[in-house]
Structure formats: C-alpha cells, structure tokens
Amino acid sequence: MKLFFLVFLIGFVNGAIYNHRDHSSRNKVLNKRYSPDWNDLDTRPLPEWYDKAKIGIFLHWGVYSVPGFGSEWFWSNWKGGNRQCIDFMTKNYPPGFTYQEFAPAFKAEFFDPDKWADLFVKAGAKYVVLTSKHHEGFTLFPSKRSFSWNSVEVGPKRDIVGDLAKAVRNTSLKFGVYHSLYEWFNPIYEEDKRKAFKTQTYVDTKLWPDIKQIVHDYKPSVIWSDGDWEANDTYWRSTELLAWLYNDSPVKDEVVVNDRWGIGIPGKHGDFYNHQDRFNPGVLLHHKWENAFTVDSGSWGYRRNMQIREILTIEELLQQIVTTVSCGGNALINVGPTKEGTIAPIFEERLLALGDWLQINGEAIYSSSPWEYQNDTLNGKVWYTCSINRSNSMKRTYRSGQVAAIYAILLEWPSDNRLSVRSITNSLRSRYNQLEMLGNEGTYLNWKITNGDVEIELPDRATVKSNHAWVLKLATT
C-alpha cells in the first residue's frame, strides 16, 4: 500500500505536543452508542491498554509456510506469472500440482502454543496478533464457511486460533487476530469484483460471518484488518462492522482496530493507523499509530531460503522500536513460523535478546509518552521518551510540569565515553538534577553545559549492564 501522507507536527500549542484524543472523559462515553459513520466512530476513545503496551508480536502463518519460498504471497505470485515461483514449482513439483495440495503438509506437528506464549512473554511483548486468515483464504480456525480449507479439516487438524488464544491468555498478554478482508481466488469475491463491487454477496455470506464467529468464539483484543485495497469501505460495510464491534460485540470496551478498511481509509480512520507495511515516519504523529515490521526483512511468512544478512540485527530491531515509541507508536514485530509449528532459532534469539534489553530498559518504553523532542537536535543517534504524572494515563498531553522523568536513549555509544546532546539542556538547567543509566541505578553521571550543549561523562562501558541502546534517565531528587 502506498504511503498516503506524512504528518509533521511542528510547534507547540500551550505547551502541548501530542494530544491523541482526550481520554480524561473516557468514563463519560463508555456507554455511548456509535453510529455507522466515520465521524462518529472516530470519537471513540482508544482503550488504555493498547497505548501502554508498546510491544506486540505478529505471526504470519498459513499454507504458504509449506513452500516457504518467496513470501506469503506465493500463490498469487505463482499464478500471476512470477518467473522465480514458476521455476521453483517446475523443478520441485509434478505437472498439474495445485496450491491446495500444499495444505496436507501444513501439519504443525511441533506447534506448542504454551511454548510460543512463554517465548513472547520473555520477549517483553504485551500482545500477540495471529493471522486468522491471509489472502489465500485458508483459515486457522474452523470457519463455518471455509469448507475443507481450514486448519481443523486439513493440515494441523486443530483450531490454531483457539489454541494460541488460550495459551496467550494464560499469561499476561492480550490476544488479537489479523484477518484479510479479501481472498485472491474465492469465486464469490471474484463475482462481486466482476460486477464492480455493486453486489456484496461475499461480504454478506463469507466475510461478516467469519469475523463475527472469530469475535464471539475468541474475543480478540485486536482486529488487524488487511486486504482492503481493491474496494471502497462501503463495499466491505466497514462502518457497520465497527459500529457493531464498538456497540454490541463481546469485546466492545477493549477491542482496537487498525485503519485498513477500504480505498482511501488508511491514515484517516481507525483506533490506530498502520498507513503501510513497515511504516515508521521518524516524527511525532497526532494520532496513535503502529509500526508493523518483519524480523526477516524479505517476507512476513517463513522462507526456507532466507539468509542471515536478511535478518534484522538486534541493533536494527531496537532502532525500530526506539524510534517508533519515541514518536508515539507501537511496534508490532513479525516472525513467520515454520510449517511444522516452530519459531526458527534465529527469530527466537532476536526475541530473547529484545526481552533481555526490555528487562533493563523497559521503564523508558512501556506506558511512556512522547516528550517535547523525539530526536536530539544535535545528536541524531539519541531519541527521547518521558513518563508523565497524570491521573488518567491515556491523556496524551505533554506539559513540562507533568513530566516525572525524561529518558534519552542512545543508539550508538560514543567512542570517547562522552555524550554530547542539546535537547535536554534547558531541562538540566531548570529542573532535573539527577542523571543515571538504567541498569546502573544509583551511580549518578557527571555533566556540564558549554555553549548550550550538554556533555555527559558516561560510565566505563565494561560496567554497563545493557549491551545495546543505552538509556539515560533524567529525574529530580
């Protein structure tokens, strides 16, 4: 999907730099009924848990994990004439082999949902989003309208969504689902498409029943929509669906949805915005957003031929998270499981390294707020978050008197152990008199101001607990 816009928020109004809906009045609108139109739906307060969470795990898993070649778009690319996919099939499968014949090999024989949930907890995630159905149409739950094309009737012979939802909820994590609105080769959808979407047979007989089944059976806290780009939101009946979710569904008070609900909708409507895959603007946005990105830089689904150079390093992973959270977003980190139901060791290693980092530095991430500055004006390798004293933790308005602590996150350690920054100069002059490194609490750092810049004397790196992306905390005594 194309990037529709980039919002640069410049200047401050009465000291406020970020006001994502005033949630101080949330209790007054909990009982409100929303009309099926965007203007009214957009007034719904964002459930508090989502902004606090900051870190989620994304799982793209389906029949495409069997060929494990190219990407999760394998079927579409193969049928669309992609030469690499055609050559792969010619060399490895007999003539006439169909995509449906991959499904029995999607056995997930080593799928252990409790083990997965434990890994995600150790990674420091706060929510998990699983593909209940990708564009191939194969559902990971016993869809009442996907006959012989679901994980209970073929392949794993089990309710993947249900099993993972149960395991995740046995921990402290929230559970959510990704659901593709369209299906590449569903004849009912293709018929609606041939009629220029003037009929809605697919929406009425397949899409809505599937989504309502998911909501009633699994009660997801996130519904992550995709596959919307061929038709307008009126075809998908998006506003009607969201009004039902917000008014009458069993998850009406907790559920959050993204912005992929039809042509022209991304970046305009939804509880949080994705804009496009791997969206990370590097600037503060006025609306809650999410950066969904992949640890395997080449695919969302598992690739058997992925190369180590294509896997994000822990430094690259942390850079995505730090820059995202600093600018008011959540980070949704994708890994693609294997057809056997395992998380590849390289993905597991990255997630565990992230968890180790968050154990030390999570104070600067979870429940944090954007600060007056996101990126230091002198040192581009330093990003900021802050914690705010507020009675309602979802009131996202920054005023200097509300800031309890400022966090400066260093993505690169200076070679001489001296860090030069500019954006915290006035804070150190006027209010904050303690400067320490997370993980090394109680050892206060020396600093001096020269010509408007701050020079901070960092500790000996050998004594520092964190191995990457070090966090300095500014506080008062």
Automatic annotation (TrEMBL):
EC number: 3.2.1.51
InterPro entries registered for this protein in UniProt: FUC_metazoa-typ (IPR016286), Fucosidase_C (IPR031919), GH (IPR017853), Glyco_hydro_29 (IPR000933), Glyco_hydro_29_N (IPR057739), Glyco_hydro_b (IPR013780)
SUPFAM superfamilies per the UniProt record, alphabetical: (Trans)glycosidases
GO cellular component: lysosome
GO annotation (BP), single: fucose metabolic process
Pfam families tied to this protein: Alpha_L_fucos, Fucosidase_C
Keywords from the named record: Glycoprotein, Glycosidase, Hydrolase, Signal
SMART domains in the cross-refs: Alpha_L_fucos
Residues covered by the Alpha-L-fucosidase C-terminal domain: 374-474
Segments forming domain Glycoside hydrolase family 29 N-terminal: 28-363
Enzyme class: hydrolase
Signal peptide: 1-15
Keyword Metal-binding: no
Family in the record: Belongs to the glycosyl hydrolase 29 family.
Function as written in the Swiss-Prot or TrEMBL entry: Alpha-L-fucosidase is responsible for hydrolyzing the alpha-1,6-linked fucose joined to the reducing-end N-acetylglucosamine of the carbohydrate moieties of glycoproteins.
Protein known as: Putative alpha-L-fucosidase
Organism: Bombyx mandarina (Wild silk moth)
